[in-house]
Design the sequence.
């Protein structure tokens, strides 16, 4: 059986076909959930926010005219929702999130290879490093590095010129380099363990 | 190409987002510049570390919860409309009651607070306008009376 295209599913959903909407959810749920998780960094909220994305998609489906790919459109909705949540979180905290995490991260960390070799700690460190990035750098970095979007697509999603996309990704990488350079050797150990 | 320019473009170079002539120029620069080569190496290592970024799996009720939330929103929308209709109906009811009480007050002979109907009648009598069913002047007369009543 030939899989229906996203665009065909969208046309069916516009006519009120709930089965088509279910199929669209199944197709994109994992992708949206992880895009939210990687941008927000919070496991607790990630599923709720991801569900909000699909609710927003359902309500505004008539506004999708097919000028871009559906995957780009749903990514844009996801990113915008995540940015709103990040701003909300920042407003609700007394101190700036970035500063708080930076201060935590700036303290010397014991990168004992025996401890750090544990995958979970490695993951947590990488996750915290990305969370420490300012919101605008984080989003551009996640879309490029973790979601593999082109600079053009990122520019379209965030409504910024390509030069700005380039600059944000570059700055994100330079910030992460200083956070993560002590992990280079740990990562090599992990890869060796995997190959055995 | 100079190091500061290469450094700025290194990220886009790694992502293959540059035109061919710039890629070639950077490749040539990297062949002899160890500092820029180290920077590129860092970018590659950051990329490889991202393989370790944790991935979430979707919960078993994810899809059904979306439909539940949509249903809930639909119900809230209906409740809001019903509430609005009830509020409007209540408001109109209060107004009707007000005018009814006002009229009853005047029927009981209390002239200290004349009803609007009485006021219009007196106004009409005073101006000498003859009221008949088909009187086109009635609308003007009533609106004049209303204006004075409000004053």
Sequence:
């Amino acid at each position: 059986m030939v899989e229906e295209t996203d665009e065909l599913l969208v046309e069916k959903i516009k006519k009120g076909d709930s089965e088509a909407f279910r199929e669209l959810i199944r197709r994109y749920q994992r992708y949206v959930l992880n895009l939210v998780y990687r941008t927000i960094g919070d496991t607790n909220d990630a599923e709720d926010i991801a569900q909000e994305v699909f609710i927003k998609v359902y309500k505004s489906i008539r506004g999708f005219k097919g000028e871009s790919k559906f995957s780009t459109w749903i990514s844009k909705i996801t990113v915008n929702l995540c940015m709103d949540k990040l701003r909300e979180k920042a407003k609700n905290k007394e101190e700036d999130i970035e500063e708080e995490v930076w201060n935590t991260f700036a303290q010397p960390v014991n990168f004992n290879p025996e401890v750090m070799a544990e995958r979970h700690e490695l993951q947590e460190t990488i996750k915290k490093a990305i969370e420490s990035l300012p919101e605008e750098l984080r989003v551009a970095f996640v879309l490029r590095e973790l979601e593999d979007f082109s600079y053009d697509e990122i520019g379209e999603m965030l409504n910024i010129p390509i030069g700005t996309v380039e600059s944000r990704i570059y700055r994100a990488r330079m910030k992460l380099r200083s956070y993560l350079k002590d992990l280079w050797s740990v990562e090599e150990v992990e890869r060796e363990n995997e190959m055995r | 190409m100079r190091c500061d320019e290469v450094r700025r473009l290194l990220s886009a170079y790694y992502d293959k987002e540059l035109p061919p002539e710039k890629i070639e120029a950077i490749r040539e620069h990297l062949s002899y510049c160890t500092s820029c080569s180290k920077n590129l190496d860092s970018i590659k290592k950051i990329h490889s570390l991202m393989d370790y970024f944790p991935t979430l799996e979707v919960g078993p009720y994810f899809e059904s919860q979306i439909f539940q939330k949509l249903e809930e929103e639909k119900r809230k929308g209906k409740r809001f409309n019903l509430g609005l209709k009830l509020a409007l109906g209540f408001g109109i009811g209060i107004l009707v009651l007000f005018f009814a009480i006002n009229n009853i007050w005047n029927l009981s002979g209390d002239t200290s607070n004349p009803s609007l109907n009485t006021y219009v009648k007196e106004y009409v009598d005073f101006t000498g306008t003859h009221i008949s069913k088909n009187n086109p002047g009635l609308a003007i007369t009533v609106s004049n009376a209303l204006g004075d009543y409000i004053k």
Observations:
- Chain A touches chain B through 42 residues (CB under 8 Å).
